[in-house]
Amino acid sequence: MPGRDKVKALVLAGFGLNCDWETAHALGLAGAQAVRVHISDLTGTARRKATESLDDYQILVFDGGFSWGDDHGAGVLLATRLANHLGEQLRAFLERGGLVIGICNGFQALVNLGLLPMLEPGWPRQVALAANDCGNFQDRWVELLVEPESPCLFTKGIKRLDLPVRHGEGKLVCDEAVLARLERQGLAAVRYGNGRGRRAEGKWPANPNGSLNDIAGICDPSGRVFGLMPHPEGFYRASQHPDYTLRREQARRGGQSLDPLAPGLGLSIFLNAVAAAKETL
Amino acid sequence: MPIRLEIGLKPGLNDPAGQGLAHKARAYLGLRLEAARVLRVLTFDTGLDGAQLEKVRQAIFTNPVTEVSSFRPLAERALPDFDWALWVGLKPGVKDNEGATALEAMADVLGRAFGPDEAVYASRLYLLRAPRLGAEAAEAICRQLLANGLIQTWRVIPRGQWDPALGVGIAIPRVELAHAPSVQTFAINSDQELIELSAARDLFLNPADVPVIRAYFNDPTVRAARAQVGLSDPTDVELEYVSQARSDHCNHNTFNGRFYYQDLVSGERRTVDNLFKECIKAPTEALAAAKDWVVSVLWDNAGVARLDADHHYVITGETHNSPSNMEAYGGAITGIVGVYRDPMGTGKGSKLVAGLWGYCVAPRDYAGELQPALHPRRLLDGIIEGVRDGGNKSGIPTALGLLHFDPRYLGKCLVFVSAVGVMPALVNGQPTHEKTTAPGELVVMCGGRVGADGIHGVTASSAGYSESTPAGHVQIGDPYTQKKMHDFLLEARDQGLVPYLTDNGGGGLSSSVGESARFSPGAQVDLKQVPLKYQGLDPWQIWVSESQERMTVAVRPQDRQAFMDLADKHQVEATVIGRFRGDGKLRLDYGDRVCCYVDVEFLERGFPQWEFEALWTPPAARGLAEPVVTPPADLGGLLLELLGSPNLCSREWINRQYDHEVQGSSLIKPFCGRGQEVPSEAAVLLPVLSSRVGLAMSQVIAPDYGDIDTYHMVTASIAEAFCRVAAVGGDPEQVGGVDNFCWPSIIHDPRTNPDGRYKAAQLVRACWGLRDGCQALEIPLLSGKDSMYVDGTLTGPHGLRRRVSGPPTMMFTATAPVPELEAVQSLEPKLAGDLLYALGLTRDELGGGALYGLWGQTGLQAPITNFEQVREVCRALHQALKAGLVASACVPGRGGLGYACARMALAGRLGLEVDLDKVPVDGELDHMRRLFSESTGRFVVTVDPRRSSEFEQMLEGIPWACLGRVTKSQRLTATFGGQEVLGLTVAQMRTNWRRRFGRMV
Q: Which residues pair with B781 in a beta bridge?
């Protein structure tokens, strides 16, 4: 569209989602015009018509939270709601080359919607995010290793990064055939590392949930749809990292400083998304 | 016809919930389960046909990758060789969140509305393979692990009685109150009659209030006014209203009481006319007047202070002890979700940004003979899980917490929950912290519906625990419903639609409408308009029900449509239930019948002040003395034992299951250091992401010092909380406080509470400590609460019953802005070679401390706080932090320098060399006292040696010393008189520190 140079990102809000503010903030820092949009404004309610449409956006963000309280499975009711009301809009959005990222609860919603891994048409549900093997919700930082051969547009140029996980249902499960295709096509975009740059090999807590093949996030074959359990917006700035005070001290000894609001590595994922979306403008 | 859907994980998949059950059965009950699988059960009591049911089964309720489901029993597929089937469902009337969201999703998928008689009920079916498990043991698993009899019901089915075709059968927990709502009136002809009525109806009226209540309803003017609306004698609605409002919980009768204090040794007598006014209100008012950063205190649901030029923060702290004591999970989740409504209902509303927790329970491995409502282990697990679900699903970071064990909490546990919000200073040009109602505005109730749950919560918490404590007040909070309401109300606020709001907590509508009506003043409400969960409630029940997740909002008539549209967008139920008026009357109707007509001011006039005798015996006269101890040459064993002790060991598993980073605001997390496992001194958040001002918060309790003198307990707690916020970079000139008192009953009774007068004196002294500490450190009390009656009567051996009173406990929460974000700091040493400094003076103060506690002794010399020194040390540290001179900062509190250095070494995974001869001391102290004294107002910090002289120049006027240095060796060593008196590796310390709870997840 002529005259429009700012990428617009739609960040879902409402019905128990709760990472909408910081995700929108991170996207803003990454150069997008991020808008928090209430799900009712997209789907309408029994009394009101929809006021927002995906047609106006290039990036769609399924952010973290507890949509519908996670009753009946994490992300399930959000997926049901969107499939029921937005199926056509979503199809059109993807055909236009729109980018979709699902984080934590958003990732859970994407696999339930069938937008991931999207190995076949018709959006079948082929991957699930089941209860953590450790049996509980976990908030801890993990190392993520990026699959170098992945088509994922969101992880381009990143080798590894630390991010927090914060979930009770993040164990990636699928049948062997699906797993083999994920691996063969490089769709397992990010994996849990052992903290020293190697795979976690299923060991808790480096792999915090027991995911198959240490998979923390996957993309679709086009690389434009990406979902992951860890939170990139949880490390949008330097001082969110647990080692911030250590790194700042090391910088100080070298006569440098490390601004607490300096970008964190998690921001790279949003920067990649905005860069990729710019090409579709 | 009702039909049941069963859903389970595919047989080949791990079932973590089943494994968790097997683990608990073995750990709690010593029962071995070979395998356990869990099925989710949804019972549809709807008019759906087969095709519709099949559609929702596939589209909503079954994950094709991981789950199988069927409208026929699944048990034999899920676990073919199960020996027991245990079914657990909710009792009628208990809020069924899962059932409600199921119905909502079905309505959406099917495009069909459901009628009031249609419902979905969620339950669970547990299948156990345990061939040697007896019927009694299976019953125990239900009763003790899976269900709480107050809110849940269960069935135990042995395999032999299992009907493969019927399965577990159909249970419909529908509430059927075959009751036509009515209003009763009571001709109360004498005080005695009202006292008897109070007992019969569980009103818990104070006998001293009875004549005042009668006098009001007998007043000819009042009677004439009432006659005009068709009322004469008081109604049940009115008496319940009075009971709620006059309860100690709502009215703080104890803290507003007059105390006659006497020191039994010196003979000194002092009268405190009103404990709250003298020790809390007056000092805070004086500080608020002097400090422009104090925005709003002492009247609203929470206190308000300035964060930065454009934002305020809002804070309050609560306890939810009585409900948690009986139903740990439900009580705790209701507590955390409930306290979140306080900042939400402060001013015109604030956005929630943090939750804090504190749990006091009896030892987790309690093996004594007394029988509490719940064993401490199960109690603690339930509390932890309740706060987890309440906090995580609210999307609010659970930023910090503490856990304290003491066998005296067996009578009643303590569950502290605190909440922090932020608000823009102005919304639409109006100050956000101000609110008022005006005649003509609509009274709108938002959020959940009203049921019989939560009736008499506040009156029950104004009493001790016994088996006859009414169970009706237990509820289960619903963070999902509340999160929607939170988002809705903030959007309404920002659109200028909210001139006033407040929460419905204790006392329900009676409290929220009663308080709101004081502004306009007056209100008229039709209780028949209040949306109910089920029919059949009497008007008085609607009026006092504490059903959760509700707020009361004033809405201008012209804004009604916009407000309701917004409610619809957020799918929050909002109902106009009345109007504010200016006639000074609170009038309640039920349809066309008036059921309450009283003066709004009625509850504020004429009630007698409570009075207490407070008799103090100083500690030495009580026989307390310092233990006679010769220290060992090597202190390593003592430090290792301290590290492993229940109150100092790692409790990482708790905050690890709490989302402490949501909202993207975390700066100093609950854990710090390499491996992120050592608890931080305080949390720092960046509540406004676009700001450069952080918010530090810390919390401290120290009940053991109270065994010596509650005055020193409180002053030490304030000092430590103050030092902790300073340690992470908080500005010591802008520290706010929150006091949460939890006390055993101080009402003297020669038979039931013979030491009540001593406990009253402990309360007076604690309040004096609070007053003195806050005045000296210039801490306004932004908020505070009291919860009296921390007592329980428990059944013991041989059928005897014993009263167990909790130790006097006060949690102090400190907050401070971090105006220079660069000043934030954590406690772990960063680099080997750095110098190690001690700031502040160490005295012979081990009384009530962790070391003596190892031997079960109290001692006499509790830390006596020198506030001047605390201030000076914190100021110096703050300057040094701002200058970037301090590489880590730790506050020696319980366990003294020894425990502080151990935490630092553990967090940094570095060694420390400490020369105990150098410790700045007051008097003659041996190496053990130097290492373990708990004197307040101290820090241990590390500093880059190249900047040490710059640092030292900032320490003028305060006691300090360089104790040694940070080493790469991963060894903590201490010398005294040239001899090594301590030498422990980080690995040794870590093993001990994590032995007790380190493997818990």
A: B737
